[in-house]
Structures are given as structure tokens and as C-alpha cells.
Design brief:
Structural class: alpha/beta
Radius of gyration: 31 Å
Shape: elongated
Distance between the termini: 64 Å
Number of domains: 4
Oligomer: single chain
């Protein structure tokens, strides 16, 4: 491990040598300067993890050294050494950005402990900066894999939207990458340094959703033993993603509308409104126009969230992206060895319907990576649902009517027939249709099938 590098500045030769020996003995690399001027020259020549400087020195004093270091590296911790009679100067230095101060005379343990705290802070700041850079890089729009025209169109629009605070509605089937797109918008916006808070409105029990979104005050209900911030307050200064917003109750939709209009939230049981500065991104896999007609979604809320509408295309409508996604997931799950996919396996992957979209493809590639017998994935490592041949559309519909056909009615009819064929066994009906059981249940709910 690299030794921490310390810049020591003190005009007292004997004290400087004692401190240099003590810090070197503690495992640090120390460069000692006898004046403020010499210390700044060393600072320009080398990189340091912390600075220890006396306040009172002839020529350039410690306060001036602090000011010049802060100009060049505001995050570098500077520890001031001061005599007892000049503690006011040390306090002033703290106000101007010094990390801490120690008073003469001091023992070496006091200096080491203060320096260790400064180095830990410096290390954490660097790690946080690296983590923020990693997260920002991970959620660049370029991280959404695809070169198809549909994907390029969505990403181009998202890039233009990111620079504004406009509310965004992202639609698309399950597993298409709606949350990934929302994160891309956030991390490419001026709010990137703020929090990104994702709320799955369909996953939170109805009895808790209001408190989760808006917070509550102590005593608002049984179990509310203290005040608690809601997701909107936690997202203050950043972005909140309301995933599956169509699953919210009508009364909660009205409260979301108020937040959008007034930028205020009301905690459950509270008497005062709390201001919030938050960008709202909503997403859903449902048809909101149909939900409005059925009285399940407020039209005024739809108008407020539909300022910018983006639709993530299903994987079956961008099959040219499947080889890129397969390659990406193979690298993700096989970091220690290069793995490829055979032509036959890739053909099966490219021709499958992918009702679970990119998320389903990722799971299939992860499974294949675990089961593979060599560095080449073959059809043997793919699920049976990909290898079973099914009849094409020509085997189902013989004559298309001249007046046209309603696609949703056709899909609903196929689901009914599949359920009838398998005595309402949802698992077998889903397998027959080449979709997952959750997808079948969602479509049954969509068409009101019991």
C-alpha cells in the first residue's frame, strides 16, 4: 500500500525534525520545509495527502500558506500548529478551511490521531468522487446498449430533455429498461450531484404507500414513533422516479398532482406543508389512455406528467440489438474468460419473442454462463422455451378481413383460447403462448380476464 504523503512546514528546526521523525515512524512519507515559501514550492512539485504547518513563521505565515493551498486544492486537509497564545488565529484558520489545529506543546499521539482523521477524510472524499464518477459513467446514455433506429431516437430525445427540469413520462413493457433511461436522464442533468430516488408504486402495500411517498409525523398512526421523511423529501435537490405510477390509488394521484403544481408535500398527520425541489420522472407499462377511460387514472395528472413522453421499444421490435446485448451480458457474467455464442444459439436468441424483454435476455445469458461446458454457448445451454418451435402467424390466421382487425381483441382472444385449451392453468397457458406466467397475468388484468 502506498504511504500517505505529508507536507510539513515549520521554521523551528528542532521541532520540525521531531515531527518529521514521529510521522515517518508512523508510516508516512514526509517532506519537510523550513518556511512557507519553501513549503509552497514543494507543494507545486509533488502531490500530498495532507499538510501540517505552523501558523507563526517569518515571511509567509501559515494563514497565507493555507489560503494559497485552498486556492489550488480546496479538499486537501491542512492542520495548523499554534502556540497557546494564538489560538484565536487557529480558530480563524478553521473558518477559512483548515481541517484542525493542535497547540504547542503537544505529544506525538495527539498529532498522529489528528492526522489520521484528516487522512481518513481525504480518502473518503476521493472514494466518493470515484464512486460518483463510476455511477455517472454507468448511467451515461451510452450504457443503454443498442444501435437500432428506435433506440437512437429515444436516446437523442432523452439527451435533449436531460438539461431541463421538465417532467418526463417513460412508457414501455416490463424489462425494457425504463429505470435505466430515467437514471441516464438524472445523471446527465444539472441535478446529477443530487439524489436519485426510485419508488416502485406497485410494490409498496397500499397501507404504507402514502407514508412512503410523503412521510409522516410522530403519532400519525400506530407505529409512527418518530417523524419520518418521505421519498419526495429524500429526493430534494435531485430526481424521483415514480415507477408503475398507474398502480397508485386515485386519492394519491391527487396528492402527486399537488406536489407537481405547488412543489409542497404534506406529511401524514402533519399540519405544515414541506417545500421540495425535485424533478419527477414517471414510468408505466400500462396504457394510460385506457386507464383514464376506465376511471383508474386522473386525466389532469396525466397532462402534468406527460410533458415529455419517451417510449422504450420492446426487444422484439429491435432485434438487430440482440447480438450486442448478448455480447454485453456475456462479458458481464464471464469476466475471467472470453465467452462467445454459437451461430445456432444466436439464431435462437434472435428469433425468440422476448416477452420479458432485455431483463429476460439477461437472465437467459446468466443461466447459459453458469451451465456452459466450454467457452462457446450452444443451444444446449438455452432454456427449452427458446428451442421449442412454434407455428407462425400463418398457422393461426388464414384470412385477414378487408376492414382490418383490432390487435388488442386478437391478443385477448388468443389468451382466452389458450386458457380454455389448458383448463385455465395459467402456467401451461403461458408456456403455450411463449410468455412468462407474470406476463400472462398482467395481460389478463389488462383485458379484465378473471
Amino acid at each position: 500500500m502506498k504511504k500517505p504523503s505529508i507536507l510539513l512546514i515549520d521554521d523551528d528546526d528542532s521541532l520540525r525534525r521531531v515531527i518529521e521523525f514521529s510521522l515517518t515512524d508512523a508510516g508516512h512519507r514526509v517532506r519537510a520545509a523550513a518556511s512557507g515559501e519553501e513549503g509552497l514550492r514543494f507543494f507545486e512539485q509533488d502531490a500530498f495527502d495532507a499538510v501540517v504547518t505552523d501558523i507563526t513563521m517569518p515571511g509567509m505565515g501559515g494563514m497565507e500558506v493555507l489560503a494559497k493551498i485552498r486556492e489550488r486544492d480546496p479538499g486537501l486537509p491542512v492542520i495548523m500548529i499554534t502556540a497557546y497564545g494564538t489560538i484565536e488565529n487557529a480558530v480563524s484558520a478553521m473558518r477559512q478551511g483548515a481541517f484542525d489545529y493542535i497547540t504547542k506543546p503537544f505529544n506525538r499521539d495527539e498529532l498522529r490521531m489528528t492526522l489520521d482523521k484528516a487522512l481518513r477524510m481525504r480518502r473518503l472524499e476521493r472514494e466518493n468522487a470515484e464512486l460518483r464518477a463510476e455511477v455517472a459513467d454507468r448511467y451515461r446514455f451510452e450504457s443503454i446498449i443498442g444501435t437500432s433506429a428506435r433506440v437512437k431516437e429515444v436516446l437523442e430525445m432523452a439527451g435533449r430533455v436531460a438539461g431541463s427540469d421538465a417532467t418526463v413520462l417513460i412508457t414501455g413493457e416490463r424489462g425494457t429498461g425504463k429505470e435505466l433511461l430515467a437514471k441516464g436522464i438524472h445523471f446527465n442533468s444539472r441535478r446529477a450531484e443530487g439524489p436519485f430516488v426510485a419508488v416502485n408504486c406497485a410494490a409498496i402495500p397500499e397501507s404504507l404507500i402514502e407514508s412512503e411517498l410523503f412521510g409522516h409525523v410522530k403519532g400519525a398512526f400506530t407505529g409512527a414513533v418518530r417523524d419520518r421523511e418521505g421519498k419526495f423529501e429524500l429526493a430534494d435537490g435531485g430526481t424521483i422516479l415514480l415507477d408503475e405510477i398507474a398502480d397508485l390509488r386515485i386519492d394519491l394521484q391527487a396528492k402527486i398532482l399537488r406536489v407537481l403544481q405547488e412543489r409542497m408535500v404534506d406529511r401524514v398527520g402533519g399540519e405544515k406543508s414541506v417545500p421540495v425541489d425535485v424533478r419527477v420522472i414517471a414510468s408505466t407499462n400500462r396504457n394510460l389512455d385506457q386507464a383514464i377511460r376506465e376511471g383508474k387514472f386522473r386525466e389532469d395528472l396525466y397532462d402534468r406528467i406527460n410533458v415529455i413522453a419517451l417510449t422504450m421499444p420492446p426487444l422484439r421490435e429491435r432485434r438487430e440489438d440482440i447480438p450486442l446485448l448478448v455480447e454485453h451480458f456475456l462479458r458481464k457474467f464471464n469476466k475471467d474468460s472470453p465467452v462467445s455464442v454459437s451461430r445456432e444459439a444466436l439464431g435462437l436468441l434472435a428469433s425468440y419473442g422476448w416477452p420479458g424483454n432485455v431483463r429476460e435476455l439477461e437472465s437467459v445469458i446468466e443461466r447459459a454462463s453458469v451451465l456452459r461446458r466450454s467457452d462457446v454457448v450452444t443451444p444446449a445451454e438455452l432454456p427449452d422455451k427458446l428451442t421449442r418451435e412454434k407455428p407462425g402467424i400463418e398457422g393461426i390466421i388464414l384470412n385477414l378481413p378487408e376492414e382490418g382487425i383490432a390487435l388488442e381483441d386478437l391478443e385477448k382472444g388468443l389468451i382466452v383460447k389458450a386458457l380454455e385449451k389448458h383448463n385455465n392453468n395459467q402456467t401451461r397457458a403461458a408456456e403455450y403462448l411463449g410468455i412468462t406466467r407474470p406476463t400472462l397475468i398482467y395481460r389478463m388484468e389488462k383485458y379484465g380476464l378473471k
